[in-house]
Design brief:
Layout: E1 3-6, E2 19-25, H1 34-38, H2 41-48, E3 51-55, H3 94-109, E4 113-122, H4 125-136, E5 141-147, H5 157-167, H6 172-176, H7 180-183, E6 194-199, H8 203-206, H9 212-221, E7 228-233, H10 240-258
Parallel strand pairs: 2-3, 2-4, 4-5, 5-6, 6-7
Antiparallel strand pairs: 1-3
Helix pairs in contact: 2-10
Length: 260
């Protein structure tokens, strides 16, 4: 699968040291090119000495019937889960790809990257991926942030469609395993510091696709509200203009942990 990797100038110094890594997960319809070209993560990452990985959002060209029929399911919409429902279970294994297959291949191919200092971020569907992968793998990911994430997929149209197709309509327990608003309840007693930015003029926020308030309520229920920092920005939408406005803040957030 195609991806983009940004290496900061520190990786090419006379005496290079291991470079921490930030994985950025993209949203619906995107590839690894979108944020690499429009997100402006490289600006602060170059200053802080952090590599950025931009993976694709799904397998491509598997020939699964219906994979190219809609923008919110199949190609470009892998939802960072391992599908269990046929025919999607034959290749749609984005959870395993992002958490295991890709890191192993990447760290082997680029020994300069530090596999002990890894953070994760993402936008929209990728924000959902960042939150859930982090909450399920806090021993691997040292930091987490998200832009306008799908925060409670079991309760929004996009998530219901994806989880019904990838897991089956009746598999609600499986849905919960990949829902940040459910997973955060299981983090009770742990130390969290998650940064989320959300624009109030975001049409998908208005359409109840994102539901950050549900995540905030779940964090409060678990006694973790102090570790979840949701910033609402008046008149900002869902676009890369919104993301690029706060990209530096997110890289700085990750740097607190990746450069500690």
């Amino acid at each position: 699968m195609a991806l983009n990797l940004y290496l900061p100038p520190q990786a090419r110094s006379d005496k290079p040291t291991k470079i921490p890594v930030l994985f950025y997960l993209s949203g619906l319809t995107c590839t690894g090119d979108n944020c690499a070209e429009k997100g402006f993560f490289q600006h602060r990452a170059s200053q802080r000495g952090i590599a950025v990985v931009y993976p694709d959002t799904s397998p491509r060209g598997l020939g699964v019937s219906g994979e190219d029929d809609s923008f919110d399911f199949g190609s470009g919409a892998g939802f960072y889960v391992d599908a269990t429902q046929p025919p999607w279970n034959k290749g749609y294994k984005m959870y395993t790809y992002i958490t295991s297959e890709l890191p192993k291949a990447l760290f082997k191919a680029f020994p300069i990257l530090d596999e002990t200092r890894v953070g994760i971020s993402g936008h929209s569907m990728g924000g959902h991926g960042a939150l859930t992968l982090y909450l399920k793998n806090m021993d691997f990911y040292k930091s987490c942030s998200a832009f306008a994430p799908i925060s409670n997929p079991s309760k929004c149209p996009w998530g219901v469609k994806a989880f019904s197709g990838y897991f089956g309509e009746g598999q609600k327990a499986k849905w919960s395993e990949h829902d940040a608003s459910e997973l955060i309840k299981g983090a009770k007693g742990k130390s969290l510091d998650i940064l989320i930015d959300q624009g109030t003029a975001d049409d998908f926020y208005k359409q109840k696709q994102l539901l950050p308030e549900n995540l905030a309520d779940a964090a409060k229920e678990a006694g973790l509200e102090a570790g979840l920092h949701i910033r609402y920005h008046k008149e900002y939408d869902h676009s890369y203009y919104f993301m690029s406005s706060f990209a530096d803040d997110h890289v700085d957030h990750h740097a607190k942990y990746l450069l500690a």
